[in-house]
Amino acid sequence: MDAFGGGKVILLGEHSVVYGHPALAAGLGVGASARVVRAPRDQLVVNPWDVTVSPDSAEPLGQALAAALSLYPERHPVRVEADVAIPGGAGLGCSAALGVAVIAALDEHFGVDRTPSERGEVSLSWEQVFHGTPSGVDNTMAAVGGIALYRKGHPLEPIRARHPLCLVIAHSGEASSTKEVVSMVRRQHEKDTARIDELFEAIAVLVRNARLAVEGGDIKSVGQLMDMNQGLLSALMLSTESLERLCRSARAAGALGAKLTGAGGGGCMIALAPDLEAAEAIRSELAEHATWTAVAEAGARAS
Ligand code: PMV
User: Which residues line ligand 1 (CB under 6 A)?
Assistant: First the structure.
């Protein structure tokens, strides 16, 4: 069976998480898969992108491969083949999902034993190639999944949701570079540290209350807190006309709350639906304004 790395959505708390505040995130059942075979030289092939790189390539993907291979000092050359089922540059943690899938496949091939959270940790060096100063939420969630509270430098806190969260994900069609958007926020923070810190602290309060609401099954409050988080993200100039339109349409179609997810400045929106049927209705409402849509159930327990 192929090794897997999951996509993720940040339910609340993107950007403030880079500054040490908590974020509430949910792993997705879709992401990236990878397999490894012995080969004459090291290579990574990402099938849907029609991309082949070697670890000595100057491209970020080549450098990321080099970072992953450096985890296995004594080894033979390999060819890693990967598939990706989520859009990249969209706030869904695509690069981290790919990194975790590649490292999980290499672990399996070379007989290295790691827990999911250890795999999340070692995948940070892959993620750093793409994002410079990642908080670590993407690679951790890609490896561990579920719903969890993530805080830089702290153990991941898994959350038991009383009711699963039915999410609609819609891609605005605008590409977004996490690295650039995180730098834009950093510039705001350098220029007006006290005001931006206040915004981050306000987001942290929303995250903590959302955690309680998820645990208590109060999904109406989760939705309201997501809306408030969207307001604060807009204050950081992270929303766009298309993301706002998607959020408005989702709420008008019955969503309990909606916000951008991930870096923003484009990429995806998430909306919380009361149930799966409503989620499908919201999704079909959004389909004409979005380039990619999905319905995901986060926190559903296996029966
Ligand atoms: O755009 P994504 O899926 O890489 O999510 C980025 C989340 C940020 O909080 C903006 C950055 C980070 O490293 O946590």
Answer: 10, 14-15, 17-18, 91-93, 131, 134-135, 137-138, 178, 182, 262-263
